[in-house]
Amino acid sequence: MKKPSKVVLAYSGGLDTSIILKWLQTEYGCEVVTFTADLGQGEELEPARQKALMLGIREENIHILDLREEFVKDFVFPMFRANAVYEGLYLLGTSIARPLIAKHLAQIAHQTGADAVAHGATGKGNDQVRFELGVAALEPGLQVIAPWREWDLTSRTRLLEFAEQNQIPVAKNKRGEAPFSVDANLLHTSSEGRVLEDPAVEAPDYVCERITAVEDAPDTPEFIEVTFEKGDAVAIDGEALSPATILTRLNELGAKHGIGILDFVENRFVGMKSRGVYETPGGTILLEAHRGIEQITLDSGAGHLKDSIMPRYAELIYNGFWFSPEREALQALIDKTQEHVSGTVKLKLYKGMARTVARWSDHSLYSEKHVTFEEDAGAYDQKDAAGFIRLNALRLRLIATRNARVAKKG
Amino acid sequence: MKKPSKVVLAYSGGLDTSIILKWLQTEYGCEVVTFTADLGQGEELEPARQKALMLGIREENIHILDLREEFVKDFVFPMFRANAVYEGLYLLGTSIARPLIAKHLAQIAHQTGADAVAHGATGKGNDQVRFELGVAALEPGLQVIAPWREWDLTSRTRLLEFAEQNQIPVAKNKRGEAPFSVDANLLHTSSEGRVLEDPAVEAPDYVCERITAVEDAPDTPEFIEVTFEKGDAVAIDGEALSPATILTRLNELGAKHGIGILDFVENRFVGMKSRGVYETPGGTILLEAHRGIEQITLDSGAGHLKDSIMPRYAELIYNGFWFSPEREALQALIDKTQEHVSGTVKLKLYKGMARTVARWSDHSLYSEKHVTFEEDAGAYDQKDAAGFIRLNALRLRLIATRNARVAKKG
Amino acid sequence: MKKPSKVVLAYSGGLDTSIILKWLQTEYGCEVVTFTADLGQGEELEPARQKALMLGIREENIHILDLREEFVKDFVFPMFRANAVYEGLYLLGTSIARPLIAKHLAQIAHQTGADAVAHGATGKGNDQVRFELGVAALEPGLQVIAPWREWDLTSRTRLLEFAEQNQIPVAKNKRGEAPFSVDANLLHTSSEGRVLEDPAVEAPDYVCERITAVEDAPDTPEFIEVTFEKGDAVAIDGEALSPATILTRLNELGAKHGIGILDFVENRFVGMKSRGVYETPGGTILLEAHRGIEQITLDSGAGHLKDSIMPRYAELIYNGFWFSPEREALQALIDKTQEHVSGTVKLKLYKGMARTVARWSDHSLYSEKHVTFEEDAGAYDQKDAAGFIRLNALRLRLIATRNARVAKKG
Amino acid sequence: MKKPSKVVLAYSGGLDTSIILKWLQTEYGCEVVTFTADLGQGEELEPARQKALMLGIREENIHILDLREEFVKDFVFPMFRANAVYEGLYLLGTSIARPLIAKHLAQIAHQTGADAVAHGATGKGNDQVRFELGVAALEPGLQVIAPWREWDLTSRTRLLEFAEQNQIPVAKNKRGEAPFSVDANLLHTSSEGRVLEDPAVEAPDYVCERITAVEDAPDTPEFIEVTFEKGDAVAIDGEALSPATILTRLNELGAKHGIGILDFVENRFVGMKSRGVYETPGGTILLEAHRGIEQITLDSGAGHLKDSIMPRYAELIYNGFWFSPEREALQALIDKTQEHVSGTVKLKLYKGMARTVARWSDHSLYSEKHVTFEEDAGAYDQKDAAGFIRLNALRLRLIATRNARVAKKG
Prior knowledge:
Chains A, B, C, D: Residues 180-398 form the Arginosuccinate synthase C-terminal domain. By secondary structure, the first copy, chain A, is of the alpha/beta class.
């Protein structure tokens, strides 16, 4: 591969990506374009601009974008239509943000004529895969530079030395190792590494920064109503809201009530297990609410089909295949099932739990007339069940008869 | 079909099955054998014997069995190895008990030379299917009588008249309709019908009888350790216990902490939706614990495979196909994956939640050496990730190139 | 259910449905509307009109439709996009025609204000299910009358008596039983029953009427080219043709070369096994050609996904669930994968076989540059494979190490 | 990684692996152990021993094993129980042989105290993956050397120079490039590369060396009977035979009748498409026969389950994951379904086709009594079908009613 001349860097403004920025300039001698996104991680972006300028990036090479609405509308919501959870429990909060970043890296590279992109993910994790598969799918000709897989700055000491040599300011509290590593966006905050590395040891309380400890959550339950249209949340307590606003609101509610903490050991795509603590306050409520509205609006045929393909869909997102033909084909299936997933769910929020307590919809398939224990005015003829069962039992009877016949002969 | 001469009745000793008992005697003129099982429903069985005698059943025709250990060991535990949930949330507490009852109905019929069995399930529900498929699979020649599909006692008034005419004692509190219908066993208590029939209306508090209301649960969390061997729980806090004892103990803990309540609208096999409230205190803890131990002992290949077939497995159990070749084949797959699912999980129980906080095992696949953010002494070469990603990306690059080529030609 | 006053009958003009027609008039005393469709079964439809008139049907109540193009375009082609085969081998030729008939029965009932439909399928087969599920999904309020499940004309003698009593002419060759039962349409001809009922006995040669015996097929192979657009065949040997014309042409070619005979024992939805002989000349060629074009235009991700859901899709069609949310959701998935399935396949037809021998496409994903044994000018770095394999192997190594550790302790 | 001191080489005795042998000695300076296996590829093995000796391998370091029975019994037969085909058509003839070789490489390494294994597969193909995943799963500590990914002998000229310099004899006909690359074993012969690289160009006739051209196959059909026990073929025409003997016999029959040629473009695990011609004479017959016996002995529940997991199972084998927990779990499922797959199939072999024409078994589930068009003496009550259909239709009716209601409101 030839040396790239212009590189778009996914730049947070933090110490690590600032070092990468400088390292790209010195090691590759290339022009660096920075891309910094607001995904709802709760950090100011202006400091990133200042820092980039200070590190010699030209004004026109600094790209700062507020992607919160795009993130929720085009990534989070489609994923929640599937009730996607990875390995039974993980709501994919980091996984789903990566393809969005890859998309804008690729776009900015295209616009600026860059021939490479760079990111700050390590060689052991899933994020490198997600970034690079996304970029490959969108701009197949771009090179990808992953400094953590290349450089020799493999210890904290070496990193700080490099920073010092290159006049990169290091905040006092960044001099030592952080006790764990954090990723945050509008959907979740994840913590992993260091004090969390032994899965037999409980996570310290201070790991969860976003969600109130259950013990400290209010002693009174709160009830909310979430309204859906075609599988997406569109209103809370009757107030129509934009996608990002809805998730923000649910995050506040979830965080207040201690909802959405997960201590988890997962299987990374690169082959090893890792342990993380995930905080997904709004997402946890949203999943419960979406399941609640599907319960009355989704038919069993479509519902069971969705359930059966969900693990594969979640795995694709986890592994970084958002921009793949198979994820898109599964999305077409999922979206098709959501045409009538509209209505309202009432939830009780209390001490770490979000629980559906009622749901109603103009699109409901629930038929009180059919299910009632009372007289049903001929809606359902119980005698039909006899034939239904007898034909479902027929093959079982044939098997039992065969088995008895064979056993006797045996 | 010819008239049966001897019928084994699944007999609870309650009003409904007592009426059925008498109805079989009068309508079919046949000898009735009663079968009453202790599945942990928390009721005395001796009264059932007295009532059967009083209704003219001969001593030797009364079968009363304590099936709690068999229930947990041969039905509940195999199912929990699969992390089975129906439609995302329901732990199948009623579904899994029915094949066990069917098995003993068939066995007693075989032993006593009966030519039919009878049950008290209605023609609208799943239980009729589960009983009858089970019986068909085990004794294909047996007739099944389902009085609720046949008789004309379709109102409360008619039922009470029949009881009166036949000297069946009716307890005062049974004269009116119960506000909802209940099924209970060691795994769960379900409530459905009547006040629960409108899914838009919250369930009244008095529906949950088994589990403490979350608001009233202790304000202090409790920590327990559950130990597994080959996928089955074998000890709590280091004390080895029998299957039924373990589930009983977890039920006490769950009930105390308000754990395991589900308000749910589900799709019945017979084609309609119904709403129920399920209380599964011990099962909810057990599921969380089993997932916790699988996290460190189960490989991703086996784990993702299990996840992908779980919905079908759960559906088979829900629909009554426990004794079917396909459930048995899936069980073989699931059991094969559990060979190393041994170890201990520490859980926090608090205010409606059971959460894994730590797990350890001699069979652990977790490798701190590989995952660490620190120096890993060569366990993992980060450069391998570059090749891994490039080959995974290859087809995505080829697709993107093709799509661009086609678009250009357009 | 109340007696219907107007019934739309799926009427072939043959003896059986003529008897049904008369039986509906006499038994139900209702007005009968006839619906006769040309699905390519190779029979004149005018005689059906004459016979209906003769049996007292009013001119305006006789509906005769040529559905060949609709059949292929909206039913056969969508199904072939999935490479659907039931139980590994059956191309679903009967199954796919039934929902089309159900659709028009429902439409005509709607137009004519009929309150019921009737069909001539027996109570043992799949076709009754397919007709009735289709009608239920499209006009849920319609009654369905299935005379074979109701009447007492259960022997040949009784049927002929009824015909005689009602002045229904019986052709000489219809006086005795046919040696087997036949269904035909543009996609296939099926034969079952009577001489075919013992699966241990070979089917007599005279069963296959549509396809030349392989032994008599030409001794020289024939080569054809089939062109696809978005998964559907659009041209043969460069000549653009309508859907029904393409299938007709392929049928001629297949029949000539002895292609598409299947002797098969299948599992009916109603619970029993049955044996049939299927002739699907054009469909067999079409399936091979479609697979051939997918080989170069479909990515492995989308392709393997399609393969994995195909059996469920085929089962849905076989069982009669064409008009169901789950079939439609699967179709959305399948259609999404076909966007680039365009190009041309060259096939060799010879002595019962249709075999792809070459394929090319502007949408091809095949990259000779990558695959070549020769120098590839840097398209692919073989060293990448080392990292790819090492990371794929990592979990296997961790398992082997764990197993050895446990075994040693054991 | 440290340099290995002793390497076990998968050695065919051919030019390429002889060059590798010498290269290992010179490049790595290590002791080389050769492993040569008879998998039914139809070559003498003694010349390999002579050549190894000549290249300086010590007598005790030469391992030559006849693995034909193990190959068929422990690899081919288990795979055929699943009716495994990759991407709809490929019978996995190369894929299934690789794990067996990996197993013996690992075993010999273990026995001889070697610290590495080496193979002659290129860096572009699947075989490197299959070898190396197998070795990793069985002896996780072994290094793997893949010279084609490492060395600089990247052209024919360089290879021949190296051979000359190292006194490796080069047969005259090996001086030029072969027109295509071949792999053979008892199950199949594959050809790929060079003249086959353009999938739009028909394969030349001379590619197929193993199977008679269909045009030259006998003009008279031949009928055979294959008997199965628990899913495995055990006899031909009533004669009990060992696994390898059965496959050998079927190969002769298939080759004679022109059966089992496939021209195929497939998706390699490493991300590219490749085109191959496969000859699988006996395997093609075996697959047809196995499907034939399953048709009457396997229940639809188990059968459809098998069909639905087959593509994943085939993909695992293709990708090299034979020794993985997920393949083993799937095998447990598959084997469970085969307990009654015993009986005999009669096949017609003629001009490229193997077709089941009859099948019988003591384990048959086929019930002529149920399926018959004639009087069935009460085996089946056609009225049951009405209830069966009505309950299956219930949800479709509810959907249609809901959709109409919503559309009206709309």
